[in-house]
Amino acid sequence: MMGAVDFARFVDELATASGEVILPFFRSHFSAEDKNQGGAFDPVTEADRAAENVMRRMIEDSFAEHGIIGEEFGSKNAEAEYVWVLDPIDGTKSFISGLPVWGTLIGLQHGGRPCYGMMHQPFTRERFFGDGRSASWRGLDSKGKIVERSLHARTCEDLAHATLMTTHPALLTPETRAPFARVEEQVRLSRYGGDCYAYCMVAAGHVDLVIESGLNAYDICALVPIVEGAGGIVTDWTGGSAAKGGSIVAAGDKRLHEQVLKILNA
């Protein structure tokens, strides 16, 4: 059986191809459609669709037997042994606002479990990637040279010393806002925004905790192997698998994660 590490080069190729499609749109003049007309603003752009299209074509050409789950064009062969889970632009609201806290999420599931993932930010030329056993960052150093280093989540067993992130409390489902508030009132620092970037900051040891709800599989699948590879943990609010989305907790320290689950479920 081929391991997730064998797909690393191909994931890099997907990231490069999608980034080349997306970048010309960033901080340019383009329109965004609202996918959720009548509800909360849920934008989609031509860049989202074009990037997912190019990745789907590459996967179909290279791994015809694999499944694909994508935000923009749905599922194909989703019961396959290997399934690619794609979010071409996670953080579209930041993207259309000219803010660089968005990224392309490329996840791979084996037997329904996330086994490899990458978050690519083509504007800042950063790639966060992991296979659940290790995680790395590749980007530019102060001299503009491409470098790579291992990612390690930091220890933080006490909620009073933790930094918490969520994309925005208004995006939490109504029934999860009060439990989230119980956690938020106990942390040292709470920050909003970031989308996929927040999870990568957990893996990089700059943030301790991300709490969100209402996520889809394509919002989280790629991020699980990155956080876990850095020594962190990602689950749903019951402590179960995060692979299908829902209400999610990511923590750099498993002791902190355990403490937060108790508060969320009190």
Task: Give a written overview of the molecule.
The chain is built from 8 helices and 15 strands. The longest helix has 17 residues. The chain folds into 2 domains: 147 residues, Fructose-1,6-Bisphosphatase, subunit A, domain 1 (Fructose-1,6-Bisphosphatase, Chain A, domain 1), CATH 3.30.540; 106 residues, D-Maltodextrin-Binding Protein, domain 2. It is 30% helix and 30% strand. The N terminus is likely disordered. The protein is an alpha+beta fold and 266 residues long. The radius of gyration is 17 Å and the shape is globular. A hairpin with a 3-residue loop joins strand 3 and strand 4.
Attribute tags:
266 residues, 30% strand, alpha+beta, 2 domains, 8-stranded mixed beta sheet, D-Maltodextrin-Binding Protein, domain 2, Fructose-1,6-Bisphosphatase, Chain A, domain 1
Shape, per Cα inertia axes: globular
Total domains: 2
CATH-level-4 superfamily name of the largest domain = Fructose-1,6-Bisphosphatase, subunit A, domain 1
Task: Provide mean pLDDT, rounded.
Answer: 93
CATH architecture of the largest domain: 2-Layer Sandwich
At the fold tier of CATH, the topology name of the largest domain is Fructose-1,6-Bisphosphatase, Chain A, domain 1
The percent range for strand residues is: 25-35%
* Count of strand segments: 15
Can you tell me the residue ranges where pLDDT is under 50 for at least 5 consecutive residues?
Answer: 1-5
**Structural class, from helix and strand content?**
alpha+beta
Helix content: 25-40%
Rg, Cα atoms, Å: 17 Å
* Straight-line N-to-C gap: 42 Å
Report the CATH C-level class of the largest domain.
Answer: Alpha Beta
Number of helical runs?
A: 8
Q: What is the element string, with H for helices and E for strands?
A: HEEHEEEHEEEEEEHEHEHHEEH
Strand order of the largest sheet: 4-3-5-6-7-8-9-10
